[in-house]
Amino acid sequence: MKNPSDEKKIGTENPVPITAKEEGLSVQEKFEPDISGGLNELFEDQLKQIYWAENELTKTLQQMISKATSLELHSALSEHLEITRQQIIRLDELFSKLKMKAEGEKCEALAGLILEREKTINRIEEGDLCDAGIIAAARKLEHYEMASYSILISFAKALKLKDSLRLLNKSLQEEKECDEELSNLSLEINIEATSSS
Ligand SMILES: [Fe+2]
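That is the input. Now the predicted structure with fe (ii) ion docked in place:
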């Protein structure tokens, strides 16, 4: 008599894993975006949010540039606008490497920072005080980006996404340099702003 326990149980076997080598990918860039839950999903969410953020920031930076009076601030923001456009291209590349569709996901935290910037800067006349407000707002936005890239880097390390790490590290370094430049600029502009108030 056939023992029921000898029968093959359909659907209980683990599927044969497809190795990264078979797919022609480097082991480091093996990523499965369709898997829900786990670190993959968190990484994907963060990636979409920074993509949305960088795209929004191109508009925000243009508005800040149009209100900046200091030539140094105007130049620093214009340079960062160009860098931001490059960072978007870099994220496009990253999505492509991971075989994911490049799409953004609105981040309410960043939307709040952008709204706060508008409220602060729009009520101040252009000049030293407004420039000080622009730097304050821009640095908050920079720190959001720095935190986002740092988080993505820690996830990419855990997921062994070597190429992604390289791209993310480059963007993080640029954000840090921009924040440092704005911080240095604020030393002079904040003092000038004291005579505007
Ligand atoms: Fe950026």
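The CA atoms of residues 146 and 173 lie 9 Å apart.
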